[in-house]
Amino acid sequence: MKRQNSQRGASHGAAESCIALIDARFLAWLQGNTDGSQEAVRPHLQALLGSATANHGLDVNLRRIYWYTDTPDDQAVDAQVTRAVLPHGQDGGLSMLRAMGADMKRLAEREACEHLLIGSDDERLLSIIDEAQLHGVVVHLLADEAARNMSQLNRDDPGWARLLSQADHRVVLSEEASRQGAKPRHGGEPKAPVDPEQLREQLTTVIQTWWDEEPEDLREELREELHNTRGIPQEVDRQLLLGVRKVLERALSFQEKKMLREMVREKVLGPLANVEPTPPVPAEHID
Q: Are 231 and 156 spatial neighbours (Cβ–Cβ below 8 Å)?
């Protein structure tokens, strides 16, 4: 069904309107913010997201941002609407899911904008995103650098990969871009080479600390889950990556992340966790 001419459509060639829905907790992870505090980010959020979309060749006019957070502050930022949600640890993100999902549904049904920019990694949004797209809305998802290699992401984090695959475009918010202006940068200093043994020791410490704090019932659930997948659960991955970033004061490279995930599987399932099973010998080769 063709859309009727609306009040939105300005002159030919004008940028189409976009509304962003951002989970503050997810953005903190995306930016490597280990303490989760996002108060300093909000005044610059419009510029940050506008730059990210422009860098991906998207000519959109970011009209408004909906900000979903469990720690509201006293700021009144132009073109931003705060939605108070429960802490993720309290309800597993259900409050955020319902609030963002309801807003997404209403915006799509009322044809409030042509584009939606979503900042969340909750796979439960998949059907809601699909419904918005069926209403003709173009949906973009904020992502990390892993989205540049979807085949690898499908193996490491299939849930996150499924959600990203549903998007019309994946807008990678690189760590360097996301931190512009947030912290003083010291350029020109050469990076010290990474000592593999020291790195492994540091990763081992973070993993052991996490594992010691896990209740036995959650340990058993994790064992069962890892028996059926090659990756590790999204929440565990995020938690450990943040813990490692806090210790190392830097993000892990792609290969270092792979090593971390293999070490987690070994901690949970034992030393043979990452060994591929030996294929059966064909019957005709058996004496």
A: yes
Give the total number of structural domains in the chain.
2
Q: What is the pLDDT of residues 242-284, one digit of tens each?
A: 888 778 877 677 678 888 888 999 999 887 655 554 455 555 5
Sign, CA torsion 213/90/46/116: positive
- For residue 97, what is the enclosing H or E element? helix 94-109
Looking at residue 63, what is its pLDDT? 95
* Strand 169-172 to 16-23 pairing: unpaired
pTM score, whole prediction: 0.66
101 lies in the same domain as 168? yes
> Would you state the torsion angle of the CA atoms of residues 32, 38, 40, 44, taken in this order, to the nearest 10 degrees?
80
**Per-residue H/E/C for 189-219:** CCCCCCCHHHHHHHHHHHHHHHHHHCCHHHH
Run of H or E residues at 254 = helix 254-269
Instruction: Report pLDDT digits (tens) over 58-108.
Output: 999 999 999 999 988 888 999 999 999 998 878 888 999 999 999 999 999
Element (H, E) at 245: helix 234-248
User: Are the CB atoms for 9 and 98 separated by under 8 Å?
Assistant: no
DSSP annotation of 228 reads: T
Reference 116, options 98, 100, 99, 127; nearest CA is 100
Q: In terms of domains, do 123 and 209 share one?
A: no
Question: According to the model, what pLDDT value does residue 193 have?
Answer: 62
Q: Do 147 and 210 fall into the same domain?
A: no
Question: 119 CB contacts (<8 Å, ≥6 apart)?
Answer: 20, 21, 22, 23, 26, 27, 30, 141, 142
Query: Distance (Å, rounded) from C-alpha 74 to C-alpha 52?
Result: 26
Q: Tell which residue, 246, 244, 181, 175, has the closest CA to residue 207.
A: 244
Looking only at the bridges linking them, the beta strands covering 60-69 and 138-143 are unpaired
